[in-house]
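go over whats below:
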Amino acid sequence: ADKRQHFAERVRVVQQLQDFYGKLVYTDGTTVKDHLSEETYEKMKEYLTKYNAYNPMLESYVAGFWANQVESISILSTGDLDTEGVDSKFISMANEDGKKVVNIETVDIQSQLFLGGSDELFDYKIADILNKTEDSEAYTKEFAEFYDNWASGDIDKLDEEDDEDDVPEDLKDDYEEYMDAILYDRNDGMAAKAEEYIKNGDNN
């Protein structure tokens, strides 16, 4: 029975991953090159190729996916960053107490990280990250400060580091909608789910 349950769980996880990544591809015959400026696309391709992270098979993935790839590579390339933040600490505490860690978000909600912004906003985000990485020392310092605040759960300082003021005026509405989709709305949903668990006395 345990083996069947374990197998069924693995199948469920694989299906969720397929569903998730299936939402991140263009279905109209276009590729990411059609959704970004030529300059941003070429700089992005060159940057990812430099770190062996470019794969032409992924060209059909949405601009938001590529923005996330660029940001992830830029973070990893800085080195010496402690990624053990509040998320990892809570998971470790749960494991130590023998508590089950459950996912309270749907695939649709999580995919908003890649789909919640316009092409123009993701073009700006990619170009902005690539421009910042040209000064590796300053970029590393900036991310180190951000990660220190994230790892310590310092919400006030994280709010101070919000780069909304740097966003071009014509993209501010897009940026606010994107932040609502990937952060504020998600936080409200998580808080509501946590409240539901507490009311039901389900803290195991």
